[in-house]
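Moderator note: this is an archived Q&A kept for reference. The question asked for a predicted structure of one protein chain; the sequence and the answer are reproduced below.
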Amino acid sequence: MGKFYCKSVIINGGLILSKIIKKCNGCGIELQSEDKNEQGYVPKEMLKGKKSATCQRCFKLTNYGDFIPMEMTSEDYRKEVKRSAKSAKIVLAVFDIIDFEGSFDDEILNILKEKDSIIIINKIDLIPGDKHASEVSDWVKKRLAKKGITPLDIAIVSAKNTYGINGIIRKINHFCPHGAKVMVMGTTNVGKSSIINRLLGEKKATISKYPGTTLKSTKNVIPNSNLTIIDTPGLIPTGRISDLVCEKCHLDIVPSKEISRKTFKVNADKIILIGGLVKIKVLTDDEMKPIFSIFASKNVTFHDTKEDRIEKLITEHTGTLIMPPCEKCKDEFYALPTKTKIYDLSIDEELVFKGLGWISVKRGPLKVEVTLPEVAEIIVRDAFIQPKRPIK
């Protein structure tokens, strides 16, 4: 069955008719067949009958990987999510464990403080090494508590390989045994649409790593249940480095496989580059011999070099040895205003770059000077990847 709703139309004489409107399966936008250049376009024959339909934009994205940006603002998405929250009994908030800090948005936090929620932690399969789901859950609870959020429960999942998906339905049924409307929300790239498709048992929501894929809220009933899932547009938070580059580089930064980890033991005044995105200068005295690891997508390069060589390396090799940014977006990225700040880290702390990755100290203390775009956000947090034992 396709998605329909009624729109009242007043004609001469005050007669009110109900016009049946069909919405896109993938992104939730109202479908139309008048203008190929406007959002929601489908051929006229697709609007006939009760079969479900997918707009031209979602069709091209799903089948050819072609992304067509839409003229909707972050505020438009927030209003849509806030509107849907009013009718939901319970909220499923999806977070990306690899970019946990980049999964936060003020609107999400506000809703979680007001509504009963189950927190879904996705992409457990991308964590390097052995980390038990219970460890992840305990760490998440502590991080959320610092934001003033106490969920009903936490589900640790991998939408990619279906791990933990059935557990989500069991948790919802436990708290809502007679059925409920359940709203799914999250920032872009957390895997929200993939989780919804897994819950529904079929590919309905359009899956993409591009921000702004889902445009309007859509409703679907989970088979053999009294649970209605409301899919909402992904919110775009501030401060993510992945949102400061072109679409190709954005996709390279958002990991789809186990993330890369490189360990460094460098002298003071050595410079380490995370792609061409972040510059890290080690300030710790050589006698301390700090050891630390940097975690990021496998498509992000790591380089360490002497300070006097750094500008030449960036100038001559960005887009080749240094990625991202690429040739297409490097000039625009390097034109962004930057900031520099010094951080002192112990072995129980991590330095997080929203929308990129993090530094984990294996032997400390570690003192670094970090240079990155002014709008990018940095967070110091309790370590997610704890060293098995302090290195002496």
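Archived answer notes: The mean pLDDT is 84.
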